[in-house]
Design goal:
The complex is a heterotrimer of chains A (273), B (287) and C (302). Chain A contains eleven helices and no strands. With 273 residues, chain A is mostly helical. Chain A folds into two domains: 161 residues, no CATH class; 76 residues, no CATH class. Chain A is flat and about 70 Å long. Chain B has 287 residues and is of the alpha/beta class. Chain B has a domain of 178 residues: Rossmann fold (3-Layer(aba) Sandwich). In chain B, the strands form two sheets. A six-stranded mixed sheet of chain B has the order 6-7-8-3-9-10, sandwiched between helices. In chain C, 46% of the residues are buried. In chain C, the strands form two sheets. In chain C, strands 6-7-8-3-9-10 form a six-stranded mixed sheet, with helices on both faces. By secondary structure, chain C is α/β, with parallel strands linked by helices. The N and C termini of chain C lie far apart (74 Å). Chain C folds into two domains: 229 residues, Rossmann fold, CATH 3.40.50; 46 residues. Chain C has eleven helices and ten strands. The chains are: A mainly alpha (273), B alpha/beta (287), C alpha/beta (302).
């Protein structure tokens, strides 16, 4: 089950997108999501889709790898689409049966909504597929560095994120082992009603929590022994520095945003006129 | 030169009752005094709960004395001004390989120590390269720690300490969670570091095979230092070791058993070769 | 009365591009009342092997039978099987969870649906079998020493009254005395109660001392399955698998090479002692015998 989630999975291949500074990709993803909500009209969406297709092509990640992530949101998409179809005021599609409660306006909205959602998921999947979790954490730490002035513990949060990434697979494996150990003692995690199932989790959760706390204590000691004392006077093995291609990417983003805005006003004018 | 000096070191743990109030004290270290020479390989033996791990934590300022003094080189471990000097001089490797690797990529984990010390990036790269080579893990530098075996993870942890350019490495039961192959890898690595780099090694363990090649063995029990000598001297007192819940290599025990049967073999036989030589000498003396 | 494997193959991810056989066509019978040692290095497949024995893992191909019945046939009572084939994993921390030792040991029998009275009786018996008296009953399992935790974990499985007891490296991380205590206790249990013990271990010395039968697993195959004595005759093959024989076995070989008239079939300290004493007395007789002969020769020369 856990294997099916593509968000947060890294696809190891060398491409111009992979090589970009993580900050660029973070900003780019946010910009792209914003643009999806700003864009209006067929041309606006075409421009967004074109930009997305270009980035996907550059990233050299097989397209089917990205669509896997879409499966997980299929249900959410179906619900929001049907809400739009059936609950938008307007002209009914036809005067027969179920079509009576569907409206043309609703259909139009639903189509835009679906396209928007799909592009949103693809856009963020691209970022996680082309950026290692570490680079992402580094990017967040450095990119949000200005928040330190507001006393937001950016470094600490980034460190916590990176440690969480390191320990998630270990704890998943441990969960599996504990489950087996308790199953061998006759525990049953699979049958019974919801209350019974929740109760059955106790023999699993207690050893898991105790182990997690123990690991945390051990790790704190190990970090202290290796001179860790927050980010005061800390250097980096791989400091983030903008290269030419990163600046170029920012330029492309700006151009893209201007294009979306222009298309929006043109479309509005066209509708009004 | 003395790298480590312990003078009458005391350590107490507070015991708590069910309401969480202090109900008493237990002594984890009781008047331990010892000096350790630069470049030596010292093994510390003791059963679980003998105080050996507590002592290790004092050598890195992770714990501070309740009585007595600990000096790492010229630094008193209680002197906060030298806290980072002490931790950089005396690096530490722990038991559980998973719980001491911080980063998600091998080379970035090795860099963690130097990063904390504020070493410039260029220099960090150099140190990471060197340290990984020294422990034989250069081929794994871009791997995730989760893809490594226990022995390999411990070698990464050792590289992480080496990258801080320490003069002492303290290993707190580094092999307790490893299989025999992993154990051999780790022990071989630390012997190499001791021999080639002149690093002072403090190896805490309860595996007797691992202390045979040490320069000096300390035996702890009940928070006290009970025995101190070369492996030969220590293992010739097999009965005393048993009293401290420790055992001796099979050949040492066998030699002792034969002695009880009136076969005069020398004390403290540690290896198969020594045993065979001694028994041949005994046979020749029969003539 | 047996656990039987018939051509069992286990593939970790059958859909993966490279098929990795963790177990490869294993056939094996473990009858009742044996002390079996299983040895193999990390990744050899030994953990997967033992998890097939109580139905925690389903074979990809082949059948696992318990007392002649396929445990993966429809409606086979798997939970009941797990109480008859008890499995104690390496780390007791993975199973201890109750507020006190007694309650924790009760968890297994409670899952079997016994009456409260029976449950408590079972728990008491199991705790006494591993040598923990009443003073431990109300203690938290998390405050115990490593060796005591292992005992509670073993008791937790024994309380289900299993016919087979599988122990996965029960001595890892224990000090020498703790190790001997646990293994002595288990060995006594096997002799007294007739339970079959399957001990997974890294220590050749331990299996040599306790097991009647030794199974060596490597790369998903069973390489050796014989008495420890016969297995340790294959020292060189064992070394190729990253394993070794006990130190005394090497010693016996070294002594034989140096001309002592002794067998190499030595696996424990006691056997080595007896063999050496025998060799020495043979040596003495030989010497004195030679001496007499020489004297006789002198006489005839006269």
């Amino acid at each position: 089950m856990i294997k099916d989630i593509t968000i947060g999975q890294y696809y190891a291949v060398d491409s111009p997108i992979h090589r970009l500074d993580p900050r660029v990709k973070l900003v780019g993803t946010v910009l792209f999501i914003v643009s999806l909500f700003v864009a209006e009209g067929v041309f606006g969406y075409l421009a967004a889709a074109g930009a997305l297709a270009f980035v996907i092509h550059m990233s050299r990640v097989p397209f089917r790898f990205m669509t896997r992530g879409l499966k997980s949101i299929l249900i959410i998409m179906l619900i929001s689409v049907s809400f739009n179809i059936f609950f938008t005021e307007g002209t009914p599609v036809a005067d027969v049966l179920i079509l009576r409660s569907m409206t043309w306006e609703g259909l139009e909205k639903a189509v835009y909504m679906a396209i928007r959602l799909i592009m949103l998921i693809l856009g963020s999947t691209i970022m996680t597929l082309t950026t290692t979790p570490n680079a992402l954490t580094d990017g967040l730490e450095k990119g949000l560095g200005f928040l330190k002035k507001l006393h937001v513990p950016v470094h600490e949060l980034a460190m916590m994120m990176s440690i969480a990434l390191r320990f998630i697979p270990i704890l998943i494996e441990e969960t599996d082992k504990i489950m087996k150990a308790q199953t061998a003692r006759g525990a049953d995690f699979e049958s019974g009603g919801i209350i019974r199932r929740i109760k059955a989790m106790v023999p699993l959760l207690i050893p898991l929590f105790i182990s997690a706390f123990r690991r945390a204590a051990d790790l704190a000691l190990a970090m202290e022994a290796r001179c860790y004392h927050g980010d005061a006077n800390r250097t980096k093995m791989k400091p983030l520095r903008y290269e030419h291609c990163d600046r170029g990417a920012y330029g492309c983003m700006a151009a893209y945003l201007v294009l979306i805005l222009i298309l929006k006003f043109v479309w509005k004018g066209w509708i009004a006129g | 030169m003395k790298m480590i000096r312990l003078f009458h070191l005391m350590h107490k743990f507070e015991e708590y009752n069910e309401e969480g109030n202090v109900s008493g004290e237990s002594t984890a270290l009781d008047d331990v005094s010892v000096e350790i020479e630069k470049g030596s390989f010292v093994a510390v033996l003791g059963h679980n709960g003998s105080g050996k791990s507590t002592m290790a934590k004092h050598l890195n300022s992770l714990l501070l004395p309740d009585g007595g003094t600990v000096f790492i080189k010229e630094y008193d471990t209680r002197d906060e001004a030298h806290l980072w000097d002490i931790r950089q001089t005396a690096g530490m490797v722990f038991q559980n390989p998973d719980n001491q690797i911080i980063a998600n990529v091998v080379e970035e984990d090795v860099a963690f120590g130097p990063e904390n010390m504020g070493v410039p990036s260029q220099e960090i790269w150099k140190r990471v390269d060197e340290s990984l080579k020294k422990v034989g893990m250069a081929a794994y530098r871009t791997k995730s720690p989760n893809q490594l075996s226990g022995g390999q993870k411990q070698r990464v942890a050792i590289a992480g300490v080496m990258a801080m350019k320490p003069e002492i490495i303290i290993l707190d039961e580094p092999t307790a969670m490893l299989d025999p192959v992993g154990r051999m890898e780790v022990i071989r690595t630390i012997h190499e570091l001791n021999r080639l780099e002149g690093i002072t090694v403090i190896l805490i363990t309860h595996y007797m095979e691992e202390v045979v090649d040490a320069d000096r063995v300390l035996v702890m029990d009940g928070g006290k230092l009970m025995m101190d000598g070369t492996p030969k001297e220590i293992f010739s007192r097999a009965q005393e070791l048993k009293k401290y819940r420790l055992d001796v290599p099979q050949v040492t025990e066998l030699a002792w058993e034969l002695k009880q049967e009136g076969i005069e073999l020398p004390d403290g036989i540690l290896t198969i070769e020594e045993f065979a030589d001694a028994l041949c000498a005994y046979r020749d003396a029969l003539k | 009365m047996a656990i039987t494997f018939e051509h069992v193959t286990y593939i970790y991810e059958p859909d993966a591009p490279v098929v990795q056989k963790v177990l490869d066509d294993i056939s094996l019978t473990i009858p009742g009342n044996q002390f079996v040692g299983i040895i193999g290095h990390t990744g050899s497949g030994k953990s997967t092997l033992i998890q097939h024995m109580n139905g925690l893992i389903k074979p990809t191909e082949g059948t696992v039978k318990f007392h002649g019945e396929d445990i993966w046939q429809k409606d086979y009572p798997l939970r009941q099987l797990r109480s008859r084939v008890g499995l104690v994993f390496q780390y007791p921390e993975h199973q201890l969870f109750e507020e006190n030792v007694f309650k924790d040991v009760c968890f297994g029998p409670k899952n079997q649906g016994l009456t409260q009275e029976e449950i408590e009786q079972r728990a008491k018996n199991a705790l006494s079998m591993v040598g923990l008296d009443e003073s431990f009953y109300k203690r938290s399992p998390f405050e115990l020493s490593g060796g005591q935790k292992r005992r509670v974990a073993i008791a937790g499985v024994l309380a289900m009254n299993p016919e087979y007891l599988i122990l996965d490296e029960p001595t890892a991380g224990l000090d020498p005395v703790g190790r001997d205590e646990i293994l002595d206790q288990v060995s006594r249990l096997q002799k007294e109660s007739g339970i079959t013990v399957i001990l997974v271990s890294h220590s050749m010395e331990d299996v040599a001392r306790y097991a009647q039968r030794l199974i060596v697993v490597d790369d998903g195959h069973i390489r050796f399955d014989d008495t420890p004595r016969n297995v340790f005759r294959h020292r060189e093959e064992l070394e190729k698998l990253g394993l070794s024989a006990p130190q005394v076995t090497y010693l016996a070989a070294a002594l034989k090479k140096r001309g002592f008239a002794m067998t190499e079939d030595v696996t424990t300290i006691r056997e080595a002692k007896d063999a050496i004493l025998q060799a020495l007395s043979a040596e003495r007789e030989n010497r004195s015998g030679n001496g007499i002969q020489k004297k006789e020769q002198v006489k005839t020369d006269d």
